[in-house]
Amino acid sequence: MNTEILLPTEQAFRLAKTYIEAGEAVAFHTETVYGLGADARSDSAVRHIFELKGRPSDNPLIVHVHRDYDISTLIDGEPAYAAPLRRAFLPGPLTMVYPSAGKVSRFVSCGLDTLAIRVPASSAAQGFLRAVNAPIAAPSANLSKHVSPVTAKHVYEDFGGKIPLIIDGGACDGGIESTVLDCTGEIPVILRAGLISREQIAAVAGDCGVYRAKAGEKPKSPGMMYKHYAPRCRTAYFHREELQTAIALYHEEERAGGAPCILCEHALLGALQGCRALDLGDTDREMAQRLYVLLRRAETDATLLIGIAPTLRGGAMTGVLNRFQRAFGGTDEA
Hints:
The structure is a single chain. By secondary structure, the protein is an alpha/beta fold. It has two domains: 4-210, DHBP synthase; 234-328, Rossmann fold, CATH 3.40.50.11030. It is built from nine helices and 15 strands. α1 packs across α4 (123-132) and α8 (284-301) packs parallel to α9. 49% of the residues are buried.
């Protein structure tokens, strides 16, 4: 299959609509990461997404719609706090989980009675979704467990020759996936941290909880798998207090003939003289924007990528740390 990469024009949107109606999957730009979309109403189209990605069958998908789409046709009621949250944050990097009305394929939610809905802010995504005018099930456009894509080139690296079209809206501004918010209870509960923080949500809804997964429990949201967002090279994970151990491992890999690299926040670079290092930045937004770009860069020329967990907290850092830890298979325990 030939994979076209097209700019987000009306012609590209019409072509995308043709592919979607034929049951194909199309990759498209959003403000967070690129999505791999197919018709959420079609069992075969949704199954095709899982097959393309090699995605576990118990990992639910998010349905994307344009800003004027009537989501009441897809959900079975909502709490009073949901509408104020939509007004405050949508279109934007917030996914809201509602009771499902059963109007999309049962494979979207993997047997759960809920439905995750997102209204992306990207103009490329809005143009695509308006042209299709249907609910589009779309996980990130990467092979399962691989680093999420924030450029069309990243998508092509994973799916070139496997999908017909990538709508290239440029680099994604957000850099990490949306916050996923359970809106089925008395208060909203974050299932997956992202660019919109718990504090921002609580300021609108009055309160906001954080979900803690139980052992053996079926995932309620994408991105809850332990090892996820991982580069295709060996990795090691350290906390800031373990810096000297990390440097020792770097030199051990170097002596063995390998090509090590360290990924860390900007403030640590001065302590890494003689080591090849990638600068994650010094603000939450910089780190969110750079994380997946640097993970993808490292996997092309490093035999060992050593991650030193950022110490910055607040804002989007809960989401950044979540992705950082999962990319390296680390934990938040010092």
